[in-house]
Amino acid sequence: MAIHQHNHKLWLFILIFLSLCVTPLKADSEVVRIGVLSHRGDQATLRMWGPTADFLSYHIPSYDFIIKPLKFDEVNPAVEGGNIDFVLVNPGIYVNLEVKYRVSRIATLYNRRNDVPYKIFGGVIFTRQDHPEINTLKDLRGYTMMAVDATSLGGFQMAMREMVENGIDPYSDLKALRFGGIHDRVVMAVRNGEVDTGTVRTDILERMARAGTINLDEFRIVNPQTVKEFPFALSTRLYPEWPFSKVAHTADSLAQDVAIALMNMPHDHAAALAGNYAGWTIPLDYQPVHDLFMTLKLPPYQNLGKFTLSDAISRYWYWFLGGLMMLLFMVVMTLWVMRLNQAIKKAKDRLEMQHELILDSVADGIYGVDLHGRSTFFNRAAERITGWKAVDVIGRNQHEILHHTHADGSPHKADECPVYQTFRENQARYVSDDIFWRKDGNSFPVEYSSTPIWDDSGKTVGSVVVFRDTTRRKRAEEEARQHQIELARAGRLSTLGEMASGIAHELNQPLTAISTNAQASIRILESDSSNVDVCVDVMERIASQADRAGEIIRQLRRLVRKEPLERTEGDVNDLVNAVAVLIWPDIRRESVRLELDLEESLPSIPLQPIQIEQVILNLARNAIESLSEKRSGERQLYIGTQNKGYKSIAVIVRDNGPGVNPELANTLFDPFVTGKPQGMGLGLSISYGIIEAHGGKLSLNPACQEGAEFNFYLPFAEAS
């Protein structure tokens, strides 16, 4: 023990010597003040912590650290006034400084007890050994007590928590509660009989005993606690040791340098020995101290659970005044907003009414669909067309009501419905030919468009469908188609009327031959019944002429009769040959040389044979009539067919007559336009419509140098 004390004094001497040697060299250094709680007196505080300040001055040469002892009531003013840069106080005071002044800990003390480091401590409650009436905490009621200070964590607050939890209020249940200011005075007051009990932080009694000031046998511990590896007298819970903290105005870089220096201090350094501690560790968690203060409702938790309206008004009256003004402002604003909302609602109602009026004024049916296929609105035109009422449709699946079945009776799958595909693919669609179903179970043809609907953020929320009943239009189209058929038939009849004399002459020839040959056969048989071979030859001539007349009659019947417009696969060359039979009388009458240039192996194409025959016949007869006006030279009529590859088949009708009047070239295919004195102007117009209906085109070749050339093209398949 003597050697240890000798070494201790030697270290102190060396440290003081070094500080005297270094101090003059730091005359211009910035002073850093460390406020230390002086719980054992200013002299003891300077003696214990002065070497620590010198240690920091040595390791951080740019600064000169000094110790400033602070009594309990001097700590807060020193921090608030900026009179110190760092502070070393008990954890209870630190917690208050942390909340009030943003003080932050940078290290926690390792306390030295018998050369063993401890980073936790507690409080001890004690009485004289010769005071047998006090053995438990509840026995304290009615007796006097001295503590260090009301803000001393180990010297009062720890003990107070244990007393309160055992039903003892130190301020009301004790006979008297006094504060001694320093730990040593509390211990001496109990020993001298000035008070019945006292409380100090742990290890104070042991220190004073080692210093020879007191004898531990003179005291008895109240509410003794035993904690493994904690050898000191204890009456309370354990809490973290004192923190070394920086105040708010201290630079973080300086605080970092101080923390590093403290962490690197050896546990047996002279400064540590002087302060009777064993170095420093990283800052501990001080939540247990917060819990203690919350339990006791001590600052900064003094108002926890007891804050009343009057307390709030008295303390925060300016906030209440501001809140009242804000409340009045909010009331005014609320009334104003309510008025605006009413105006907006009226405007919304007007817009909705206008929207409904617009929807209801449209002749087309309009309805909306959400992402689940449910109808969201249904205008009056939709009600009128479908027979469904809006109240019956809105909210129900529109596909199951209006669009469930195809025209052929097969079910229409919902995932194939264009209305659903519109909002799924976010792409508008137009369907020109489809059917919807009325409430009475009947279908009707429609055309409709389906367009996506977006919300304010651009997200698709459904689609809107605009549809139209096309029953009247389809009926009109059918009537127009039938009218076109009738016009074509009328054209054919008109053509036949014009051809009647020639056809009659053509039929007269085979009929005359039949009659003559029949009479000759009779005479042969009457004169010589055995001459059978001669009769057979005559009969064959009669059959040939009858076939010729029959072919002419068949072609006339095919041209005149009404045939359906269904198309079949046909050979264009066969149609040209059939027309050649019909125009043969005119060819002979007008002395026209007919040239047929038909390309072999033409593919069969879909067509309406009678209509195509009519077009070829019209073009050929127009050419013959034009050639009849030619006064000199050979009259030539050319009819040819050509395979235009994978695209189409061409039919060319060309003559070497006087040609087409240039004034009529641009309007030649319009109805009632003709260059003939007796013509109706329907032949080319009807022919143009027939070829166009077949997906082809009829035109006049402007490059023809002599006469006129008409050609038309028939595609291998209908244009899609």
Which labels suit this protein?
720 residues; alpha+beta; 26 strands
Account of the 3D structure:
It is a single chain. By secondary structure, the protein is an alpha+beta fold. It has 21 helices and 26 strands. The two termini are 115 Å apart.
User: What is the beta-strand fraction?
Assistant: 15-25%
Number of strands: 26
Shape: rod-shaped
Parts with pLDDT < 50 across at least 5 consecutive residues? 1-9, 11-25
The average pLDDT score comes to 83
Secondary-structure-based class equals alpha+beta
Compile the SSE list and pairings.
Elements lengths: L1 H21 L7 E8 L4 H18 L3 E8 L4 H6 L5 E3 L2 H11 L2 E10 L2 E3 L1 E2 L1 E6 L15 E4 L5 H13 L10 E4 L3 H9 L5 E5 L2 H7 L8 E4 L16 E2 L2 E4 L5 H12 L6 H5 L2 E5 L5 H10 L12 H7 L1 H45 L3 E6 L4 E4 L1 H7 L3 H4 L4 H5 L15 H8 L3 E9 L5 E12 L5 E10 L1 H57 L4 H29 L7 E3 L1 H18 L2 E7 L6 E3 L1 H19 L7 E9 L4 E8 L27 H11 L3 E4 L7 E8 L5
Parallel strand pairs: 1-2, 1-3, 8-9, 8-10, 21-23
Antiparallel strand pairs: 3-13, 4-5, 4-13, 4-14, 6-12, 7-10, 7-11, 15-16, 15-19, 17-18, 18-19, 20-22, 23-24, 24-26, 25-26
